[in-house]
Specification:
Structural class: mainly beta
CATH topology of the largest domain: Neuraminidase
Radius of gyration: 22 Å
Distance between the termini: 34 Å
Number of helices: 5
Largest sheet: 5 strands, antiparallel
Number of strands: 27
Strand content: over 45%
Pfam family, one: F-box
Domain F-box: 8-45
Number of domains: 2
Helix content: under 10%
Protein name: Class S F-box protein
Domain F-box associated beta-propeller type: 88-368
């Protein structure tokens, strides 16, 4: 009956109407009739839904934190799905879920959330990686990299990246690692995982600076993935997902290695933004201000503009930008706070976890499917 009525309506009109619906309603419509199902699962509709006009009210927060367990050195890793009723009020939209597969030892403070990329997010502890759609709650494990380490050598993974190759229409993961026997003699290795073939491969001949990790230091922007690295000084190491080429970008002239600062990368006002903040291990980081630098023209050092200095704030690290001008941080005590760049107002949320374990991704609802494993096995549901 429903199918018959729907077939009498112009498809463009149907698409225009249902594009306004939330994903939860769209998933219900899929099961109501074949016509709705075919429209909603089509790549055309998924892309239209992904790129539809939205505003700050459509932004949701994926909040990861860890809680220490009674067993020594063990933690429970939890994802919370949050929205805001007003500027400084967060509420859950569904029950928390415990993250499977990732480490639950003290190493959980090094978990990374990467994305979103077309609505998809990667969760990783460097050895294990999960690709996840926070809207549909569907995920799959990325197969472990098969390339081993020669006897007597050790491998240290210094960077994980995730992004979309728009030319090959393929999602990719890139892994940077150091293989060494003697700390003074290191060889950089780069491996790429292609979702379309479900395989890892090596990239040879890569001469790279030493990548290093801090919270909020890895980001997708302008079809490239970005890490911090050290050459003669602090640089931003970039990987073009389409060309599979690395390049370096210089940081502002005031940023130097061993200058008592830590660094974070965010997108502020649609531009790549560098946050220089006091090292939380310093004697009194609350004495120092935090500098916000915006790159007005991507890739050009001379286009770095210092937007402002804020603080002092007793923070552990930045986490994300929310609603265009709210900076989210984790405090040294493990609480989530927001700083309003317009009013200088600071708000502490009732959202907390084990200190240094907090991670935040700001995302919008997406129907983007998780590519299936190469053997055709079904992806899993949180």
């Amino acid at each position: 009956m429903v199918d018959g009525i729907m077939k009498e309506l112009p498809e463009d009109l149907v698409i225009y109407v249902i594009l306004m619906l939330p994903v939860k309603s769209l998933l219900r419509l899929k099961s109501s009739c074949i016509t709705f199902c075919n429209i909603i699962k089509s790549s055309t509709f998924i892309n239209l839904h992904l790129n539809r006009t939205t505003n700050g009210k459509d932004e949701l927060i994926l909040f990861k934190r860890s809680f220490k367990q009674e067993e020594p050195n063990l933690h429970k890793n939890v994802l919370s799905f949050l929205l805001s009723e007003d500027t400084f009020n967060l509420k859950p939209i569904s029950p928390d879920v415990e993250i499977p597969h990732l480490t639950n030892t003290n190493a959980s403070v090094f978990h990374q959330l990467i994305g979103p990329c077309n609505g998809l997010i990667a969760l990783t502890d460097s050895l294990t990686t999960i690709l996840f759609n926070p809207t549909t709650r569907i995920y799959r494990l990325i197969p472990p990299c098969p390339f081993g380490t020669p006897p007597g050598f050790r491998r240290s993974i210094s960077g994980i990246g995730f992004g979309f190759d728009s030319i090959a229409n393929d999602y990719k993961f890139v892994r940077i690692s150091e293989v060494y026997k003697d700390p003074c003699e290191k060889d950089m290795k780069v491996e790429v995982f292609d979702m379309c073939t479900d395989t890892w491969r090596e990239l040879h001949g890569q001469q790279l600076p030493m990548a290093f990790w801090t919270p909020c230091s890895e980001i997708i922007y302008n079809c490239a993935f970005h890490w911090f690295a050290t050459a003669d000084d602090v640089v931003i190491l970039c990987f073009d997902m389409c060309a599979e080429k690395f390049y370096n970008m210089e940081t502002p002239g005031t940023c130097h290695w061993f200058d008592g600062k830590c660094y974070g990368l965010v997108i502020l006002y649609k531009s790549l933004t560098l946050i220089c903040y006091p090292d939380p291990m310093s004697t009194d980081p609350t004495e120092d201000l935090m500098d916000i630098w915006i790159m007005k023209e991507y890739g050009k050092k001379e286009s770095w503009i210092k937007k402002c200095s804020i603080g002092p704030l007793p923070i552990e690290s930045p986490l994300a930008v929310w609603k265009d001008d709210l900076l989210l941080f984790q405090t040294k005590s493990g609480y989530l706070i927001a700083y309003d760049l317009n009013s200088d107002e600071v708000k502490e949320f009732n959202s907390h976890g084990f200190p240094t374990s907090l991670r935040v991704i700001v995302y919008k609802e997406s129907l983007t499917p998780i590519p299936r494993n190469g053997d055709g096995t079904v992806v899993q549901l949180f």
